[in-house]
Every structure is written in structure tokens, then in C-alpha cells.
Structure prediction request, 836 residues.
Amino acid sequence: MSDRTAGIGEPAATEEKAANRKGPGFSRLFRTYGTLTIFILLVLLASTQSDAFLTERNATNLLRQMSGVGIMAIGMLFVILTRGIDLSVGSIAALGAVTSAMFVQDMSMPMAVASVVLIGAACGAVSGFLIAFLRLPAFVITLAMMTGARGLALILSNGQPVMPGTSGQGLQNFGTSFTLGLPNPAWLMLSLFAIAFLILNFSRFGRLVKAIGSNEEAVRLSGISVPWYVASVYVISGALAAVAGLLVTARSGVGSAQVGVAAELDVIAAVVIGGASLMGGRGDVVNTFIGVMILGVIGNIMNLAGVPGYHQQVYLGVIIVVAVVLQNSAQLFRR
Amino acid sequence: MTALIELDDITKTFAGIHALSGVNFTLHAGEVHALCGENGAGKSTLIRVLGGEMRPDGGTIRIDGEAVRLSGPMDAIYRGVSIIHQEMALAPDLTVAENIFLGELPARIGWSELNRRAGELIDRLGFDISPRALVADLSVAHQQVVEIAKALSRKARVIVFDEPTAVLSIGDANRLLEIIRGLRSDGVGIVYISHRLDEIFAISDRVSVLKDGRNAGEVKAEDANVETLIRMMVGRPLSQLFGDKPETDIGKEILRVENLTLPNGVAGISFSLRRGEIVGLGGLVGSGRTEVARAIFGADAISSGTMTLGGAAYRPRSPTQAVKNGVNLVPEDRKGQGIVLDMGINKNMTMANINAVARMGFFQPRKERGVVGALIKSLQIKLGAPSDPVSSLSGGNQQKVVLAKWFHSGGDVVILDEPTRGVDVGAKTEIYSLIHKMAAAGKAVLVISSEHAELFGLCDRVLVMGEGRLRGELGPDEFTEERLLTLSIGGGDRQGREAMA
Prediction:
């Protein structure tokens, strides 16, 4: 017992202990299940607004619509966990969209897909190297990559949509068909989320990525090569962004350099709604997935309810703030 | 005479646990009243109550005999109570003058007037710091002077110092004690918190001891000594602190450092460590001790010099290489560099050697649980659940987690930089016995410490640094404070210096 009281005078330890002792206090519960609660409330709200919402068709549509943002959110989650940010995902998606439309014309499908992923990974590697090894600020470097990759997509496509014609049929077949009742892009997103879940929770890589976001110096002084891990998350983010772009081409049959304009903002919003902290170290895969779905449901409800597009943006802004306030209620409403 | 401050029967509870139960504390104008106790005894809580940062659940705060309810820190400051925290609350990118008057800057700032007034306050403290200097460019000691000047600018009648010398060198600490004496003779009431008992005797008029959130006693400083204070704090005499040094066989030389020179002014460092040996590295803060440790660990660059490890050339370019070669470091700044606070205790422990509990990059939960369980048991870490964040532990147990990390990783050379800083007396003893255990297991241990008693009680021999040079070495028969201080400050001992040259 005396040991239990031992930490009491130390403020940091005390509050943590108090929180632990109280058990599932509101703020703790919210941190764990808050995103889910918001999601359920939104679904309930939506089903009262429109009969069309709780239909299988709408649900599969929603999953397909969000597959691009969802896949990019996985990469963004890893980046944000290390206390970084990746603004280039939308542009790399455009590059992925354009190059996939080009590559399918004279490569086999697997080769084309691999090359597209490799290009995205290469973009991420450039950012990652500059950020991790030269210690340049992620915001600025990925901002530069955002401009650069978009420009590259425009150059490669001559500013025109790239039409792969019949050679793109295989890709388009994949993008538009269903497997076991779900659209293929949705399956792809779900399986990538599953893989990310395993990596983040059970692998050396996942644990160290989180640890680096919490206290990089302590990880470095534990003998771990921090820069490799930091660079890797940008490679992952770039590769996944290219996959998201490829999916757009697969669905539409056209590779456009206009794909994913401002997508990075949706992606960051989804990750943040999912409870990840931009200060690094905090965030998880399941909640990120729910964050993506929340973002999708919000748009979906408002479309069904006939809310005009401009109004939608205002509501979205408000909802992001509300989500973040609730997630940080522990800090905000203490004392 | 009415007391300046009277805390009467103060109670504060966190989630049902009493942090303070019925604590009394008085402070008169012109006295230094020291507050002692182990970590977790309630000192910080009491101070936060006094400073208006926390509201007590019960009891009365009287200032000048009048019962008050402090609505917040600003209220306390208005009433003349200023607290100088361990972690200073200065804005690094503002000037000294701006910091001093922060919070009460006039809407239209007359810069020359502001700088003049700041200069006066600093002069009064007997320091020469430009009011226009940026706080970020000041030494820690000077930053503390700015904090004190800030308190004075607010007409503080009560100043609370929370572990002020923990980050200061001996010289700076002595100047700080001078300032405090000056404040006392100006009639300011001082509350002084420190783990360093010698300081407490040097400065205070009265000493109050807290234990487990209660008053454990109050004595006049002249009536007490180190023995009595420690017994009041822990209920056990000093001689038991270091425990019995087990008989260990000192084996072969493992690490040899020759003429190590660093870009930051450390030069010509040569020494060697043998298996089973605990070697102390003493000297003033800032003498280059930490720099040497970090260089051996590959955390900072080396300009010249050679090292051998187990006979082979050793020149780590990163901590990764050092760890691979079996060199471990327990850094000085535990929270900033030793542990990942928000991460689980278990995860912190296995971090330096994940491969031992993982296969193909994925953890083997059962194996990890086993390893963690064994470490918790053998290091006697007191915790709720192994997956709780490290931040839920007391300072001493947090430090044990850092030690556990290296026990698990299993290096041959362990460097501990201030291993017991901010650790309470009880946990200190346990950490000492863990250090003995490391040596007994055949590791070579290098302990950096500013506490003389720690160096002498723990080590087989002590190396002393001063101004970036190794000034000499003390064998067990030379373990006296005078010898250590003479070497660190650099007077005399030409022999030692020539031997090193």
C-alpha cells in the first residue's frame, strides 16, 4: 500500500494514476470508443433522415467511394504516428493514376501495378530521406513533393486525360467488379487495413513507429536506427497513395492528373477524426478506419438530405472540431 | 509575530488516495524553511496548493494571518507568493527583460525603461546579465536568476524554490544560496525544497519533513544532522543506504579509452574499465562527464582518440552500433531520453533488444510476457500491470525500467549517468543493489554522479573530470570529499595531472 501512495506527490504520475484508478472515466472511454460512438450516432441520424441510407447499395457505395481516402489514410496514420505529416498524397495519387493508365498500355498487369507502386514509393523515399536523414521539416518537404508530383503527373499526361483504350480493360474490370458482394476497391482497402492492423500492433516496425512519435531520443538511445523507420513511413505513404490513384484509373478507365486535388486534407481529417494525435505516438488502425467512414457518412448524409456542396464543407469543418474536442476532453476539461 | 504563511491541516485527495492528510506548515518573514521528504511524500502537492495551482480538499491557507482561498496561480502571485519550479517557465525566444515583466507588460512598452528596471533587479541579485539577451542563450543558472528577478518584480514576499540546484553546477549552486541568503535578509520568506541535505543545512533555519503526506517532524536546522533527517524521511539510518558491496572478482580489461577528444572541448581522456568493476566518474556538472559517456555510446561525434572493446578497435558512429557491441547507456535525462513515457512498461523494457522476443519482425507475445515478468521480478519494480504506461510509475521505478531495458539487452559495458537523480531514498538503495548486480554479472560499470556519497559508497575507484580533462583518479583509500573537490575544481594535485598528461 505504501508503494501505491509513493507516486502521489508527483503531479504527472498522480494524474495518470488517478485516471487509472477511476477506471473507465468519460475521457478515457472516449479516447477508446469515442470515434465509434460518433460513427454510430451519425449512422442513427442518417437512417432517420433518409430511407436510402441503410441500404446495402448505399453501404457498398460508401465503402467504394472511401477506398481511395482510406488507403491513403493508412499511410498517413503511420506518418502522423512518427509526428510527421505528408501533404503529397493527393499529388502522388495523381501520378499513380496517370502512370497506371500509361503503363497498362505496354506492360502486363502485374508489371504495371508494381511499377506504379514503385513510383509512389520512390516519391515517398525522396521525402523520407530528406526528412529523416537530413532532418528537414516534413511539412515543407512534402509540400514541395505535393507540387512536384502533381507537376510530374501533368507533364507525363500532357495535361490531358490518358486513355489506355482496350489495353486498360483488365484494370478497369478489376476496378468495377464485385467479389462476394463487395466492390473490389473496397476489398483492397479492407485488406490493407487488416495488414496495417497486424503491423502496427504486433510488429517491431509498428511498435517502434509509435515509440518514435512519443520520444524519438529515447528510442535512438536504445540503439535503434530511427531515421530508417522515419523514412520508411513516407515510403509506405507514397506507395499507398499511388495505389489509391491506380484505383481511380481502374474505376474510371481514364488516367487524369486532376485526381486527388486537396485529397491530403480529407486524408488528414480522417486520421485526426480517428483520434490520432498530430503530436505523434497516439493513434490506431481501427479508429482510423472508423474516421474514414465517418468522413464518408457525413458526405453521404448531406447528399441524401440535399445539403448543398458549399454548406457541406462548413458542416465538415464543425464536425472535425467537435471530434477533436471530444477526444481531447481529458486535457480540456481537467481542473 | 504573525506568520507570513500558515498552512493549517491541509488535506488533498486524488481519487481516494490521500496525497496530503492534515499537513501543517508555517513560514515567517526573513526565514528559510526547508521542506524535505522522499519523492511522493507530498512536497510538490503542498507547494502546488500554496501556489494556487491546486485547491486543497480541506484545511486553511492563511497569508498574514488572514484565511484566503486562492483562485489560481495569478491570485497567489498577487498575494506575494511566487514559485520557482524545477522546470522553468520562461519563454526562450524573448529577452531577459521581456520575461521578467511577462504578464504585466504595459500596453505601450517603453523599452529603455523596461530594460533599465530589469537591469536593476538583476543587479540587486548580484549578477551581470544583459536585459536584452535572449533567454535561450543563457545558461541554466542565469535562467534561474531571471526567474528570481521575475518573482522580485512581482513584489514576492514568499519565494518557493523547488529543487533549484538539481540542474546547477556546484559553483552556481553556491551563488544561488548566496542570493537566497540576501533575499532572507531583505525579509523575504523562503521555502526551500531539495534532495541535497548538505544544502539544506547550509541554508535553512528550520526543516520540515513530510512522509506519506503527513508531517513527519519539524526541527531547527542547527539541532539536526544528516542522520536524523534521513531517519525522519525513511525511518532507517544512512549506513544502510548503499547496502553491502558483494565480493566481485574484477576481471579482464574490457573497454580502453585513449586520448579521447571531442569537438566540444573535452580532450585527452584516457582510462580503462574491467569486468566486474564499478568505476565512478565525478566532477562538476559541465566538466564533460556526460559528453564522454555519450561519445563512448556513439550518441555524439568523436574528433580523435581511440577506443578498444574486448581488445578490438571500437568506434561507434551511432548508439545502434554501440548497443550491437554491448555498450549501454542510462542517460541523465530519464524522461527526455531514457524512456517513452506514454508507452507500456513492458514495451519499454524490450525495446533495446526486440529480436529476443520477436520472430520475423513480429512479436511473440508469450515470450515477451515471460521476459517482462522475469525482469519485473528480479528488479522488484512496483507496478499495476506490465502494460500500464511508464508514466504511471514513480521516478525510482521509472529508472528501474531503464535499467531493465539494458538487463534485457545484455551489454558488457554499462554507463549510468546520474542514475539516482530525482529518485527517493528507498528506491536509491534498490538501484544501488542493481548496479552491484550488474558488476557481479561481469559487466563493467561506469557511474557518473554529482553526489559524493554515491560515488564513494558505490564505486571501486573514481575518475575525476574538470574543464573537459581527466584530472585524476581516486582509489578507495583516497575517498574524501576534499580530495574529490580539489581535483574537480583544479587546485593542487599536480601529480595526478601529470600522470594523466
